[in-house]
Amino acid sequence: MPISNEVRRLQAKWLTNTGWPKRLVSMTIRGLRGWTGQQFDFGFPIMAIVGENGVGKSTVLQCAASVYRSPSGPAKSWYASDYLPDTAWEKITNAEIAYRVKEGDNRYDGSIRKPGERWRGNPERRERVVEYIDLKRVQPILGRVGYSKLAKPQHRETESNPFDKYRLERLSQIMGHRYDSAKMALTDADNKRYVAVLSQQNAAYSGFHQGAGETTIAELLKADWPKYGLVLIDEIETSLHPRSQRRLIRDLADRCRDSETQLVLTTHSPYILDELPLEARAYIIQTDIGRQIVYGVSPEFAMTKMDDQPHYECDLYVEDERAGRLLVEILTRHAPSLVQRCQIIPYGAASVGQALGIMASQKRFPRPSCVFLDGDRGPAPGCIALPGDDAPERVVFDELAKSNWGTANQRTGRNFADFADACAKAMLLKEHHDWVQHAATTLVLGGEILWQAMCAEWAERFPAEEAAKLIKPIESALIGSPLPLSATIQERVIAAPAASKRSVPASSASNEKPQLSQQSLFAPKP
Q1: The pTM is what?
Q2: Which of 24, 37, 225, 239 is the most exposed place for a label (fewest CB within 10 A)?
């Protein structure tokens, strides 16, 4: 879904490079819980870390908490020894957390290390307020140490901190309920343990009778975040339904923007990822040769990688849903037996596809996989390029326009004049990603319906010998015959049943990129 206004405003401010005078730029973790020197980059004010259990998401948070020391004052300082102790089963040696931080225009490199018995480098750390919010926040209030004694009717409230109008509005917005009031209260039984007390429809109820999500959000909102601080939240979606997850990220985006705070969170939720831009998403993959961090993943890619339920024989990775639909229509027209055997997985940024292509070439996927790049991306190791030298929208619109739109209008149930006019006007827009929705809106259609119809018409005209260049790699993957490292549609020709009249020449020894024919990719329609 489109990025929210809150996240868009955060993104715009970040790109000016004028805020966030204190930034954690990167960390390299070595010798800790299976980390062997991988570098984690923090490329957005909110970074969402996703991956299966045990891949090291919480370790990233804990290492980040250890990078800074607290300024003088009430804020707590965190140490690596708080999270990474020696036990009867583990003894940590030769470990290091190397980091790069930025303060204004200055960059500082440092490290916390444990060559032997003790951690070194703590006094040299830069100062910054760090808030680490772990999973203790989702523990039921009755299960928390010291809280059971508060749940007795003879105790009375002695002090409270009411939410102001702004904070109360945020609570109502995130939870989707209108609250009359909210406060954090103390009783005469304990002057340190606060209890959230909410009121709806003139009925007040405490944390002992609230939903876990209500208590979690109330406690999260009770305090202002530190200006220029670093906030770390483990499994942020816990106890929250999908709408609340989305609203929480939008609220946090505003808080990060206003206080110029960095937020790093872990999650398993597609709704959290969907609210954030590509640069805010980092997926940690555990492979046979160690961990790998992939940035810019799509929610679909992340969820598929974490779902162990097999549904398909082969995974086809594409940049986005429109590229996936184009590939599906090619297969439906030219290799229908493959369609039901293959799963389309959008991965997001092209850089993710390039990284996946290398993994495919090195046989690092657990089951047959092919990686496709849009035609405008150029050759990449282990990747197969979709037809044309341009983005899928431009390829389909341009080719159908040359054939006067064929019978695409009939596939949508619209008359030819309206269809041709809507598509032609859409092509006048500068941003090709808007063409489909602009034309669909004019034709009173869903964007997916229009795009499917156009891709189906396009695929019917796509030559079989060109389609074979996409089909053969999939068939090879299914029978266990891997693609060469540099296999791309521009660089090699896969033999079709009949000789191609317009095959693409193989790359020359000079590595010069071959040019596709300037004539239409389609053979004339009979």
Answers
A1: 0.67
A2: 37
